[in-house]
Amino acid sequence: MSNKLIDGKAIAAAIKKEIAKEVATLIDADKKAPHLAAVLVGNDPASETYVASKERACKEVGITSTTYRLAEKTSEKELVEIIEFLNNDPDVDGFIVQLPLPSHLNSDKILEHIHPSKDVDGFHPLNIGRMQLGLPCYLPATPYGVVELLKRSKVEIDGKHCVVLGRSNIVGTPLSILLSRKSNYGNATVTLCHSRTRDLNTIIQQADILIAAIGQPEFVKGDMLKKDVVVVDVGIHRIPDASNEKGYRLTGDVDFESVKEVVSKITPVPGGVGPMTIVSLLQNTLSASQKKIY
Ligand code: NDP
């Protein structure tokens, strides 16, 4: 089994080493360390955890990180003022506004205030448009991480049929664009599926590469798949498990136990896509500090 596993943790660790080396080179050349800021509004526990992991990851590679913690009731005007401040702060190379925002704030509207040159989450419409056109841009972290995982695991995608389950703006849709682009690592034939897709099982059965990002625990079963398919599981869920001392276990959108027999390669949960997402944000921050994109 172990030779089938795509080890996201190990690949992410290797990329972190590469980033740390580049940061050290900047510092040796008397340049400042890259600086990532995060704006966190309210006290959503998952967001708190995610921001804490970003702070830890930055520290590991020598990137400076600053977190702006704002009260749950922060107004749109106050949040935009902080964004404008970060847009104009020459010390900050890139920043993110942690999602989800409290319900009184419209995230689409808020994200448009981030200057595209500092939008290291790659969510600004300009960066999304540039991605679509194949122009230099910040790629959204999870799709960027999935593409790196496949590339570094030497999965051939040129001409292959990639089936992407889920069309969210942060995962499925950008992935469908990246995999099908006319580029060095692209040229796949992509089918993008969603909750209105008819005859989903027939489409899944045709996949050479299946990417599951639908937010449904263990939805994909082994008997749905073609032999030797490559499976990337983006989903992450905590489900109750009395046999585990924590009372829960982590699982993905894929039923790992039944699927592992059929695949040629598979990403585990945890330890697959998850570690790559933060690393992609670090890569974007490094690119921002090196002015590689804007
Ligand atoms: P969303 O809930 O935003 O989108 C889910 C998508 O799946 C939608 O397009 C929806 O269709 C589609 N969908 C839902 N149910 C079905 C179904 N039964 N059949 C076909 N399509 C379906 O999810 P995200 O993209 O934000 O996240 C997906 C998963 O990935 C989640 O488990 C999330 O936790 C995880 N995630 C993991 C990350 C990581 O770093 N590992 C990062 C981001 C997300 P429709 O558009 O029609 O509603």
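^ NDP complex. Residues 142, 165-168, 170-172, 193-197, 200, 213-216, 234-236, 253, 273-274, 277 surround NDP (CB under 6 Å). The first strand starts at residue 35 and ends at 41.
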